[in-house]
Write a structure and sequence with these properties.
This protein has about 1100 residues and is α+β, with helices and mostly antiparallel strands. The chain contains 19 helices and 67 strands. The strands form 18 sheets. A six-stranded antiparallel beta sheet has the order 40-39-44-65-59-63. Strands 43, 45, 58, 64 and 66 form a five-stranded antiparallel beta sheet that branches. Helix 9 packs antiparallel against helix 10, helix 9 runs parallel beside helix 11 and helix 11 runs antiparallel to helix 12.
Length: about 1100
């Protein structure tokens, strides 16, 4: 079995709105190009598909010189330049399109490309005739119709705009941008009812992977804005392979004479050898209660492991598999008649019963089903069990080796007669919702609101009162919303889906009404569409869930069965316990297309802290193959009982590859993988990256834009500290720029403040101040992330005398003096990380600083200077740590004088607020004879330099606030992030990806272009920008009038806020509510109406 760890290539957000470049590029005649030139052009097309616009430019530029009269090559070059988005690139591309049109006025790609640039630059009058030309030649081009409407909107011609949007919608009902612009046009026409209809349709498509938006980004502007390949022929259609989809039944092992046909079966890879093993609960009778059968996969079949520790446990109804303790080993929760048991797998293949220490037995009840999943989305697996003779229970994983029962306080206890459950995302918000099927109606629906809160939703009356014996959920039509398939006691099948706020049922055609015990949804024939498998009194059937057409049937009774990935490259096998033949399997038959197998894991290596549970349970995967979508998730894909843990199997329908998959991890991270090949087993680990960060600052240093640090970490809003507890943000920060990071160009100093991740910035003001210091003077600012200690003032601090420690020792007795006496980005080691929680240490990191003189004799105005950086925890991490009783203790400062005792100066005073920077804190009076200071924290903080300075007044210092001359919002893309030793972050502005795996918070952002009014004054009028976007700032450079020996220091004074998209962040999914510092509301109201008009949905 070949297991491949597949590398990540961006980008789902762009590809979701167009056929993948790798299989769907536009083709053209070769136009006289020779074979070498055709190959070079098509390499350029491939580069564009990877969003490597510079490499594409180089390929097309060479061709354009050789073939100046080839319009297709010229337009390809123009498209590459337009998307490169360097200075002047749009004008250069426009000139190319104009030249092509001058020679060939009917060239639609040139007309369309030129129209896009005109419209993007605000020249709607020039853009309109270009788009009209396209619509006259191709009346079905929805994007061109949309852009005609956009031109009218920009010209304030709302009555003319609306019909164009409606025509675009008629051609493409998944065109979200057209719905939103139609909503805006109807609003301007005061058609409130019509506007509401358009808005409802726009919002209804939010979770649909087939829905798309138009933006000024490659693959998001329409097919005519994409480069064309030469010489590609049509693919030969592939017919469905002949033969049955399952082969003949074969016995798995020779069953013992006392084999019980009613044994429930689940599947997982118990021994991490890459092959799926089988567990039959209560399979072996004889004297005493029934015991289990563990079937281990071996090279030539299965082996009955009689002595396996799990085989000896009696009275087991079913098993729930998952990595409970996130150690990379599969564990199991056994649902029993009597107290349940939780078993953890240990290294070496041994098992340990931890039921008593974890508190997870659930009492002396008959637990007939359950599920392991991350109920509170804190990165670990919880356990929900349903009982036939008592209350249901949710065991919440505290991540400290214990669980807490939550059913009673969360309203999940139920009626005491449950028979099964379904865990899925019912409302398309990526939370794990719960459906409990009872022996008699009413059934129970619980919508997850996070923070251990659930609600009973409206609109489910028909479902909860229906007769249901089995239920399974899945997104059969790949529209981003779950359907539920149910069976009643007669075997009649129904498909339930939400319609207008209510869940209603439609019969599945041709249901065989002879009793039903189990349902499953999976792609069995490999065509990329989910099939419905059901068992009846007369046998097993596979049917189409949409039309009831039969794909397979097998006569005979199978008391229990599952679909198991025994041969992943060929799809699912049917495994059953039968009265006549014992444990049996129907292997994949010849009548299938090949499959891709995907194992998802939230853990990449032992050094990574967790965000998603290690089993990847709760993850949603959408696969694009040609024009077809397949949507699956890692919740249970059958009606139970029990929960297997095995690969997702994705059929290719005869295609040579899956073009890409979009993965929504349960913690909210979005990740994309491309080019998955048939027959391969891919292990995809969650990208261990920050899903949010403060905006990142770059400065022009005379040669390039240099990464400086991040900003506004102190201004984070909605940051969760615990359940319902949020931080108080500070809406300002003062950042002293390191030396040599700013240089004038054309009389201007230039800064860029960009959002590199899933976050939003609300920038109120940005002032650049120059301080000229006399010889011998240094400065800093009173700035830090304050926790309990004194609050910073942001005031400048000047000094002439700096005292460095002569010795520094950490809590492990290791001398670290060299690491903390200079700011060289090599910090003192922090010790072992607590891998359960991001940004937390296993034990307290103490740094003892020894000085060669008594600090208290240096004067009263001593200041601690500290350079360093911090690894922030997320809101989700804080919640997980809170429930485990694991606190984050910010740095405290102590001093030791001649009496030998440590005196606490400040308890949890704070730390450098983000990426590498300098913080400062005035010190209180020190104990007599102080020669030692001690910093203590369990935060993951990297101390790079720690010194003490004697502050003084500096009347000769000259301060100048530099005039802000330009500010504009644009979308330069995502600067490449690298992480060095000690989690040292760095960004490379020169290496930017135009798109990345990110979502946007829903709401209105600042329109692209000039925004000087928004950031010139501190007035609560904010420039709002999101992932891949930035504010470009230019200041009038000060004169070069420094006297000999003097130095110039720049301080950036920013006012504003930021907010991430962490699932636990308050209002993290939306732009609103807008933050405020209490200024006059009339100013932001006026400016926001003028500038903040760009609506962005969650998909970007």
């Amino acid at each position: 079995m070949n297991t491949t760890s597949h590398s990540k290539i961006s980008l789902w957000l762009a590809l979701v709105c167009a056929a993948a470049i790798t299989i769907g590029c536009v083709t053209a005649s070769d136009g006289g190009l020779d074979a070498e030139a055709i190959a070079a052009n098509n390499r350029g097309v491939a580069y564009m598909g990877r969003f490597d616009f510079q490499s594409a430019y180089e390929a097309f530029s060479e061709l354009a010189e050789r073939y100046p009269d080839n319009a297709e090559v010229q337009v390809n070059l123009g498209i590459a330049i337009m998307n490169r988005q360097g200075e002047g690139d749009e004008d250069t591309a426009k000139a190319i399109f104009d030249r092509v049109l001058a020679a060939n006025p009917s060239h639609l790609r040139a007309a369309y490309g030129g129209g896009l640039i005109d419209l993007h630059q605000g020249n709607a009058e020039e853009a309109l005739p270009r788009f009209l030309q396209v619509t006259e030649e191709d009346p079905t081009n929805a994007e061109a119709l949309y852009h005609v409407g956009q031109c009218h909107m920009q010209l304030q011609q709302f009555e003319q705009a609306l019909p164009w949007f409606e025509r675009a919608i008629e051609i493409d009902p998944y065109f979200r941008s057209a719905y939103y612009r139609a909503f805006q046009a109807a609003q301007r026409l005061r058609d409130r009812e019509g506007a509401e209809v358009f808005l409802e349709r726009f919002q209804a498509l939010d979770a649909n992977p087939q829905a798309h938006l138009v933006e000024f980004k490659y693959t998001k502007m329409g097919a005519l804005s994409e480069v064309v390949a030469f010489g590609a022929g049509d693919a030969t259609p592939i017919e469905m392979p002949a033969g049955p989809i399952f082969a003949e039944r074969r016995k798995l092992v020779e069953e013992p004479t006392d084999w019980l046909a009613s044994a429930d079966v689940t599947a997982c890879d118990l021994d991490r050898d890459g092959a799926v093993d089988l567990f039959f609960a209560g399979a072996i009778g004889g004297e005493g209660p029934p015991r289990n059968a563990v079937l281990m996969a071996r090279e030539k079949g299965f082996e009955l492991a009689v002595e396996h520790p799990l085989a000896r446990i009696d009275n087991v109804n079913t098993a729930l598999w998952g990595d409970i303790d996130n150690d990379g080993l599969t564990d199991v929760y056994l649902c029993r008649r009597g107290p349940n048991q939780l078993w953890l797998q240990l290294e070496g293949g041994s098992w340990q019963d931890v039921t008593a220490t974890t508190g997870t037995s659930g009492g002396d009840l008959d637990t007939i089903d359950g599920a392991v999943f991350d109920a509170d989305h804190d990165g670990d697996l919880d356990v929900f069990v349903v009982n036939s003779d008592g209350d249901n229970e949710l065991f919440n994983n505290n991540r400290d080796g214990t669980f807490r029962p939550l059913a009673a306080t969360s309203g999940l206890t139920g009626t005491g007669d449950s028979r099964g459950l379904l865990v899925t995302d019912l409302d398309a918000d990526l939370d794990a919702d719960i459906v409990v099927i009872n022996s008699e109606s009413p059934h129970e629906i619980y919508i997850n609101e996070l923070l251990w809160k659930y609600r009973r939703p409206e609109g489910w009356n028909a479902f909860v009162t229906a007769e249901i014996v089995a239920a399974v959920g899945g997104d059969v039509d790949a529209d981003g919303r779950i359907e539920i398939y149910t069976a009643d006691a007669t075997g009649a099948l129904n498909r339930w889906r939400e319609d207008g706020g209510s869940w209603t049922a439609k019969p599945v055609p041709d249901s065989e009404k002879s009793g039903s015990a189990r349902l499953a949804l999976a792609d069995i024939d490999g065509d990329g569409r989910l099939d419905l498998m059901t068992s009846t009194a007369s046998g097993l059937r596979v049917i189409s869930p949409t039309n009831g057409g039969e794909l397979f049937s097998a006569a005979g009774t199978a008391a229990t069965w599952i679909l198991a990935a025994l041969e992943p490259a060929r799809g699912f096998s049917l495994v059953a316990s039968t009265p006549d033949h014992g444990p049996s399997a129907w292997p994949p038959g010849p009548g299938r297309w090949p499959f891709v197998a995907v194992n998802l894991t939230g853990r990449e290596n032992e050094a990574d802290s967790m965000r998603t549970n290690a089993s990847g349970i709760g993850t949603r995967l959408a696969a694009r193959t040609g024009a077809r979508w397949t949507v699956v998730d890692t919740y249970r894909a059958d009606s139970g009982p029990g929960q297997s843990l095995q690969p997702l199997l994705l059929g290719l329908g005869g295609a040579p590859r899956i073009d890409f998959v979009s993965i929504d991890w349960s913690d909210g991270v979005l990740q994309t993988e491309m080019d998955l090949l048939p027959g391969e087993v891919y292990t995809i680990a969650e990208t261990q990256r920050q899903i949010s960060s403060c905006p990142v600052l770059f400065s022009w240093d005379g040669e390039s834009y240099r990464f400086v640090s991040d900003l506004l970490g102190v201004g984070g809003i909605g940051y969760a500290l615990g359940p319902g507890e949020y931080n108080v943000s500070r809406p300002w920060e003062r950042l002293m720029l390191p030396p040599d990071t700013l240089a004038a160009r054309d009389g201007r100093l230039t800064l860029k403040l960009g959002e590199p991740m899933e976050e939003i910035t609300y920038l109120d003001a940005a002032r650049l101040v120059a301080y000229d210091l006399p010889p011998g003077w240094i400065m800093t600012v009173d700035e830090r992330m304050a926790i309990l200690g004194p609050q910073p003032t942001g005031a400048p601090i000047f000094a002439r005398r700096v005292i460095s420690p002569v010795r520094a020792v950490d809590d492990r007795g290791v001398a670290v003096t060299d690491a903390i006496v200079s700011a060289d980005l090599r910090a003192a080691p922090v010790g072992d990380l607590d891998l359960r929680f991001i940004g937390r240490l296993e034990s307290e990191h103490r740094l003892t600083l020894v000085f060669d003189q008594e600090l208290d004799r240096l004067g009263e105005n001593l200041v601690l200077f500290a350079d360093g950086w911090v690894e922030y925890p997320y809101s989700q991490t804080n919640f997980a740590a809170w429930q485990a009783g694991a606190d984050y203790r910010a740095p405290s400062l102590e001093a030791r004088g001649t009496d030998g005792k440590w005196t606490l100066l400040y308890d949890q005073f704070g730390y450098p607020a983000g990426m590498p920077r300098q913080m400062a804190m005035p010190l209180p009076p020190l104990p007599p004879g102080t020669r030692e200071l001690r910093l203590s924290t369990n935060h993951e903080i990297y101390w790079d330099r720690v010194v003490v300075a004697a502050a003084e007044e500096a009347p000769e210092v000259q301060r100048r606030e530099l005039r802000l001359t330009a500010a504009r919002v644009d979308q330069p893309g995502f600067a490449l992030r690298t992480t060095g030793p000690q989690r040292l972050p760095a960004y490379d502005w020169a290496r930017r990806a135009p798109l990345w795996d990110t979502r946007f918070q829903i709401g209105h952002y600042t329109r692209f272009g000039e925004a000087l009014e928004l950031v010139a004054e501190t007035d609560d009028a904010v420039a709002i920008f999101g992932p891949g976007e930035a504010v470009h700032l230019e200041y009038e450079a000060p004169p070069e009038d420094l006297r000999p020996g003097w130095t110039r220091v720049y301080v950036l004074e920013v006012d504003g806020w930021c907010k991430d998209m962490d699932r636990f962040t308050k209002d993290g999914a939306t732009v609103a509510p807008l933050p405020s510092a209490g200024k006059d509301p009339s100013i932001p109201k006026r400016l926001h109406e003028k500038y903040n008009t760009r609506y962005v949905s969650s998909s970007g």
